[in-house]
Amino acid sequence: MNSRSLLSLFSSDLAIDLGTANTLVYADGKGIVINEPSIVALNRKTGEVEAVGNEAKQMLGRTPADIVAIKPLRDGVIADFKVAERMLNHFIHKAHKRKRLVHPRIVIGVPSETTEVEKRAVLDSTYRAKASEVYLVEQAMVAAVGAGLPIAEPCGNMIVDIGGGTTDIAVLSLSGVVYSRSLRVAGNEMDDAIMNYVKRQYSLLIGERTAEAIKMEVGSAAPFSEPRTMDVRGRDLISGLPKAIPIKDGEIREALQECVATIVTAIRTALERTPPELSADIGDRGIVLTGGGSLLKNLDARIRSETGLPVCLADDPLASVVLGTGKMLTNFKLLKRISIN
Question: Domain check: are 177 and 205 in the same one?
Answer without folding.
Answer: no
